[in-house]
């Protein structure tokens, strides 16, 4: 193995791509999209964007409508004096968004009332109304039953659950949701990364083959050196991109909380009292949850690297075996299967990162790159499992390299009809 | 002195015997032609010399060293299917290919600039190959082959796809390279180029080297026993000749190859007895005829040629 030559191939692969417009564009736009996303989260949580719907209440109990109006005076209207027919007409004409007839049986028998509405608003809107009605009915029922103040207070109290994560470094505020979402996103990134850069490598091999420049190169470089050079070249491109993103992300996530705090403060002083009250419901320190531990990024890079090496060798071999991208489809499917399975299973891993299934798929080397990073981000994975999965991946990658190198060696000089799986097996034997 | 030595080399692909027990030597400072019909094993042999493929059996040495990454540096190779990176600038591309051959970047830069200058191609440095015409990119391909200043040049079907002017230029360059002490090996199925340029040849047929040696010697060995006969009269006497093969026979013409040591004057005497002789000439057959008669159905045995 001549490292000088591998280096030359790597350098060419890296420089020609990194200098390309598409690389610069993708690298720059992705974090911008991320910033825009964070900005939107902040924006939506401090501003009331929902247009309030108007719901008419035809109250036959005499007590509920007041309570509803006091819960939300812009949403509910007392239309008890109007007949149902005219309410229907108003709803169809759009003067009202909907109406509810509250009969006495709602209070006495606990019957569910019916919302007649114009068909807009969505699930969140309907469940908000349901919640309001529930509160109003309960309050009226308590009043009617004439229970003591004490009991009423019991009903009004809502107990929450605060979680604290205990680790060796001490207690920290638990952010399970953010952690498992992060796990999923990192798994998704590795999935996309392997596929995107794997396909990139494959195209690059096919390009050399269709350009017929391969034979010239093969007269200067061993096929295995060429394959390694290209593989690590594309890997370097991927790592460059990921490192840029991680640095940007870390910077943004650290700056996000104080920045959002500052923006809100500035905004609130110019807002009317009522609105600023609503805005203060958003706690900018929530954004601190977005700060990711450096160790997770380390594992992310490590698992992407191993996953890429396992799959990219196969992608390179496919590229060498065919002459155009269409022909590569039949080989992509079986190769893509485990990695797709890993992606699908990742939802399960996210929900229950410590289950047996999650443990198995995070150790199995073909799914581990994706599923293990999800587990690492969302739970405390025993160190032996991490090490075992790394060792298994290294062994697998040596195996796929070995096979791929054989197919690659024969494939790069083969032109004409596209090979079958049987022929590929023959190439491997030949090598 | 043999600079390339191919000894009993065999290469099979499954059941196809691409190259079967082939041996030949290429001497330093000579132009060596590898001839044969398509599929005769020329390209496979060339790839083995370039260490792109490895022989199943036998050995190939370059300057006494078994074909290896080391020997690749000494060879400049232009494959039959030419190709370059379409989306790469001419200069970067040449630097890449030349450095891959083991030349350091400073020397590579000098050499590339020299050759670009020589081919009036300096203006194309920053152009991508896809912007160049076919003739232009062929020049770049040629520079890519020679820029690392190898001792040996191997061209697989170098004249295919070239117009007559470029063909002529290439021919001149090949001869110029030979005159400056370089060794050139090229393959072709076009005989006239071989006759004009080659010092030595190796004739391939169905994976075997059926004829090897100095072109002039080979031609001479054929020429001594070939007669061109023009006559008027009944040609039936030709059928009574023994141990000859008659080519190009018509009513008043015959090309007679004498297969044994019989006296050609006897053939002339016999002819004079039966017909009026207009012309009797001893000639060297053209290489095309040697080629056809060597690989054709009435194959001359190897032993007779040597």
Structure description:
The complex is a heterodimer of chains A (431) and B (306). Chain A is mostly helical and 431 residues long. Chain A has 2 domains: 299 residues, no CATH class; 102 residues, Periplasmic binding protein-like II (D-Maltodextrin-Binding Protein, domain 2, 3-Layer(aba) Sandwich). Chain A has a 4-stranded mixed beta sheet with strand order 2-1-3-4, with helices on both faces. Chain A has a two-stranded antiparallel sheet with strand order 5-6. The radius of gyration of chain A is 31 Å and the shape is elongated. Chain B has 2 domains: 212 residues, 3-Layer(aba) Sandwich (Rossmann fold), CATH 3.40.50.300; 82 residues, Alpha-Beta Plaits. With 306 residues, chain B is α/β, with parallel strands linked by helices. Chain B has a 6-stranded mixed beta sheet with strand order 6-7-8-3-9-10, sandwiched between helices. Chain B is elongated. The chains are: A mainly alpha (431), B alpha/beta (306). At the A-B interface, helix 1 and helix 9 of A face strand 6 and helix 3 of B.
| CATH H-tier superfamily of the largest domain in chain B | P-loop containing nucleotide triphosphate hydrolases
Record field, number of beta strands of chain A:
6
Largest interface: A-B, 23 and 28 residues
Order of helices and strands of chain B: EEEHEEHEHHHEHEHEEHEEEHEHH
User: Total helix count of chain B?
Assistant: 11
Q: Approximately what portion of the residues of chain A adopt beta-strand conformation? A: 5-15%
**CATH domain class name of the largest domain in chain B:** Alpha Beta
Instruction: Enter the CATH topology name of the largest domain in chain B.
Output: Rossmann fold
E-strand count of chain B:
14
The rounded Rg of chain A comes to: 31 Å
What percent of residues of chain B are in strands?
Answer: 25-35%
